[in-house]
Design a protein that fits this description.
Strand order of the largest sheet: 1-2-3
CATH architecture of the largest domain: 3-Layer(aba) Sandwich
Helix content: 40-55%
Mean pLDDT: 96
Structural class: mainly alpha
Bound molecules: tryptophan, iron/sulfur cluster
Radius of gyration: 22 Å
Distance between the termini: 33 Å
Number of helices: 14
């Protein structure tokens, strides 16, 4: 149960579809550990999903339930953490609106995440007010809880820096020596960068991810598509693990002693690529299996998930309403 002296954490994920191993090792595994030490709020940030996917919302309901089931399945514990749906806690929107008053347009347009996505998501029209405001809404997500720590990946550090700036600006303008909002800090997880099976960034939109719902067979099939040392044509050719994408996975998912052995066996052609891939798929499966099975069990209890979400939303509303009362007061909206 929540002890008020613990520092608060907020983090979130966008319900855009099935979660993959990148989400597990990059975020969820550390979220599970953080539950012991911090008062944690985990947001299913559906409004953020809309900033880029507003044209296609028919799977949103299912994606939210799937995300909750996956989180619960991997060990997020509703007794120790609060799971909430962003759009069900309107205080996020109110705070985003107010923060928007002090968030400079130029700074939002200069963010590299903004420029990159405009460039990369050419098939979507995200030349919108909503998408430009993404970091403002993200600031509100965090600040509404007066959370001071935000576990995120490297790619989000820029957003957390902006969040600090926007909060500081807000406090300077309206705080009168008090702190209606708190400046958050990013907590980087030390996970290595995980690429997809095609060597690009692992992402649902590239269709190159090992999903947390994938069966052992599917995992093996995906690993079998990975590119190995192109010089290693025949079974007897010695290989160079350093240029092989399967070996990059072994580095992440296989215990260190075994990794050295694999490298050696590759160089001496003692192991074939087929065997090597099978071992890689086994490691991945061992990592994914508990979450896959946990998710499947939760999905059979949809009404329990809905209850957990309703309770999480209610608690989140209470906590954020307290912050918002101070904020409205500070701004002069009495
Ligand atoms: N932008 C984050 C991502 O893409 C998701 C997110 C939304 C978030 N609001 C947040 C993360 C608040 C941390 C805190 O991963
Ligand atoms: Fe890659 Fe393994 Fe084949 Fe070596 S043996 S090239 S590490 S798949």
């Amino acid at each position: 149960m929540s002890r008020p002296q613990r520092e608060r954490i907020f983090s979130g994920q966008r319900p855009t579809g099935p979660l993959h191993v990148g989400h597990l090792i990059g975020a969820l595994q550390s979220w599970v550990r953080l539950q012991d030490e911090y008062e944690c709020f985990w947001g299913i940030v559906d409004w953020h999903m809309l900033t880029t996917h507003y044209e296609d919302t028919h799977e949103l309901d299912d994606n939210i339930i799937d995300m909750a089931a996956t989180w619960l399945g991997c060990g997020i514990d509703p007794e120790r953490s609060t799971i909430l749906i962003q759009s069900q806690v309107k205080q996020h929107a109110e705070l985003a609106l107010l923060l928007g008053m002090v968030s400079p347009l130029g700074e939002l347009m200069r963010l590299s995440t903004y420029k990159d996505q405009l460039e990369n998501l050419k098939d979507k029209n995200i030349n919108t007010y909503g998408f430009l405001g993404y970091p403002v809404l993200q600031t509100a997500d965090i600040a509404a809880y007066r959370a001071t720590r935000v576990p995120v990946g490297e790619d989000q550090v820029e957003h957390i820096e902006k969040a600090r700036e926007f909060v500081r600006k807000f406090n300077n303008l309206y705080g009168r020596g008090k702190q209606p909002l708190l400046e958050p800090q990013a907590m980087l997880s030390p996970t290595p960068r995980l690429l997809g099976v095609d060597g690009r960034k692992m992402s649902k939109s590239y269709d190159n991810a090992i999903n947390l719902s994938d069966s052992p067979k599917t995992i093996l099939k995906k690993v079998n598509t990975m590119v190995t040392d192109p010089q290693r044509v025949r079974r007897n050719d010695p290989g160079d693990p350093e240029v092989c994408s399967v070996f990059a996975y072994h580095r992440i998912f296989t215990p260190e002693e075994d990794v050295e052995q694999i490298a050696q066996d590759c160089r001496t052609a003692a192991i074939g690529c087929g065997d090597c891939k099978r071992r890689c798929a086994e490691r991945l499966n061992a990592l994914v299996a508990p979450t896959r099975e946990g998710r499947a069990r939760w999905l059979e209890r949809r009404s329990d998930i809905e209850e957990i979400l309703a309770a999480g939303n209610a608690h989140a509303r209470e906590v954020t309403e307290e912050t918002l009362q101070g904020v409205r007061e500070a701004v002069g909206l009495r």
